[in-house]
Amino acid sequence: MEIKLKSGTPLQQKTACLVLTALEGKVKSALFKELDQHLGGALARAVRDKEFSGKHCQTLLLHPSKALPADRILLIGLGKEKGAGQERLRQAAGSATSFLQDRGVTRFTIDVASIPISARNLTAGHRIQALAEGAELSTYRFNRYRTEGVNELPAPVENVTLLVEKKARVSELQPALEESRHISQGVALARDLVNEPGNVKSPDFLARTAQSLASDIDGLKCTILDKAAIEKEGMNAMLGVAQGSVRDPRLIILEYRGEEAGAHPIALVGKGVVFDAGGISLKPAEKMDEMKMDMGGGATVIGTLATAARLKLPVNLVGIVPAVENLPSGSAIRPGDILTSMSGKTIEVLNTDAEGRMILADALTYAKRFSPRVVIDLATLTGAVIIALGHHATAVLGNHDGLVRQLIKAGEQSGERLWQLPLWEDYSTQIKSDIADVKNIGGRPAGTITAAAFLSKFAADYTWAHLDIAGTAWEEKGRPYTPKGGTGVGVRLLIEYLR
Ligand code: BES
Ligand code: MN
Ligand code: ZN
């Protein structure tokens, strides 16, 4: 899809479709009046007959015949004025784009100047970014494994024009458009990795993907530790999880330097369980297939590093992805086993399905050698987070309130919302082991918090936040700009935070 900026007057555009936005109950601007005159009152009639009121993501398609140069007019609702901002625009652009794509309209124009949102903090750049992201991300599909019926699928949208008023705006807003193109590309990369089936994405596949990105993108460096190197580092918690699979683990390290070499980096750590069967504490069969998404955190870290490098963000970054497979077998770890982690802390494994925290324990310890100024980990860590927050927010916990606040703010801007859960010391009593330093499960109460409490024991030496994305990394139904499958959650959030 190509998105470009152009200046001009909306009703004079010659386009297959002109897309106009409307707030709920407010379909009566000067522009709509003028439009209605050209349409001979068709718009007023549609509004009167309650076919269109501007409800969020509601659509009304009109055919002006010869009255206007545009072949079609699409009205798209933005919902109520209160709360209208970047996210509504993203969703509206996504809905309009899929609506038109489904109907075979592959080129259209969205009028930016007439967007009726007055929020002062919604700059022109934000508007462009939101529209471009919504349009681009809504048409994402994972069709790599379809060999049949591909020709019957609707043709992908080819060309979206964002129409602004003045010529000067076009060059002024070009950078915002370029940035959103890179961001959407990073999200698509993360989605692709999550959607890739488990048989294809071995830990080594993830490692090779990261390596090939590093060879393609300027300034991105990749280092891979194989099993022998991981053993040398003493990462026995990670190795313990990996030992049930015939596919060996990898530790993936991506580095990008956008500021002076000496500046302490921000480290991003992503859980990379390419398939989580639960190990000897085997999961039930139902929906086990979805556990191919258990490397969603890792996918986001890889997507974010690639994007940050393409954007040349002025910051030093390290991405660390422990990639393993969690399977039951004759060589798998057992409930009751005790592992000595890289930090020296011993872990009593009471449930082999609580594997994410064990590989992260070692990855968080490994992160120390980069003297990071901040460490953020992302992980599809607990089913409990879905009980707490459903699929509408990522849980954030950490040992530094300032960092948590900054992340929450970036979440609001990016539409990838975070909600903080407490990480009081009290919760740590639930993960005290009788015979080792910690145990890897804390019982039913507050499962997301006790998992984070476990991680906190390995992240005590730096400023750290943990994002539990188990409820947000996978989309079951499809949303305006998030089709079913891997969501790539966190890429837009982290880029916003880093910016
Ligand atoms: N990968 C799962 C968590 C998960 C659940 C991710 C649902 C996405 C959707 C994780 O490794 C896991 O199995 N967690 C256990 C922990 C329990 C054994 C303490 C869980 O949540 O049940
Ligand atoms: Mn598990
Ligand atoms: Zn898992």
Quick summary:
With 499 residues, the protein is α/β, with parallel strands linked by helices.
Question: Could you describe the 3D structure shown?
Answer:
With 499 residues, the chain is an alpha/beta fold. The chain has two domains: 2-164, Leucine Aminopeptidase, subunit E, domain 1 (3-Layer(aba) Sandwich); 185-498, Aminopeptidase (3-Layer(aba) Sandwich), CATH 3.40.630.10. It contains 14 helices and 20 strands. 52% of the residues are buried. The structure holds ligand BES, manganese (II) ion (MN) and zinc ion (ZN). The site of manganese (II) ion has 4 residues, from loops.
* Integer count of domains: 2
Q: What's the end-to-end separation, in Å? A: 25 Å
| Approximate strand percentage | 15-25%
Q: Compute the gyration radius: what is it?
A: 24 Å
CATH architecture of the largest domain: 3-Layer(aba) Sandwich
Count every beta strand, where a strand is a DSSP E run of 2 or more residues.
Answer: 20
- So, the CATH homologous superfamily of the largest domain? Zn peptidases
Which blocks of ≥5 consecutive residues have pLDDT under 50?
none
- Whole-number mean pLDDT: 97
Level of helix content?
Answer: 25-40%
**Bound small-molecule species:** ligand BES, manganese (II) ion, zinc ion
Main beta sheet: 9 strands, mixed
Number of helices: 14
Instruction: Assign an overall shape.
Output: elongated
If you consult CATH, what is the topology of the largest domain? Aminopeptidase
Based on secondary structure, the structural category is alpha/beta
CATH top level class name of the largest domain: Alpha Beta
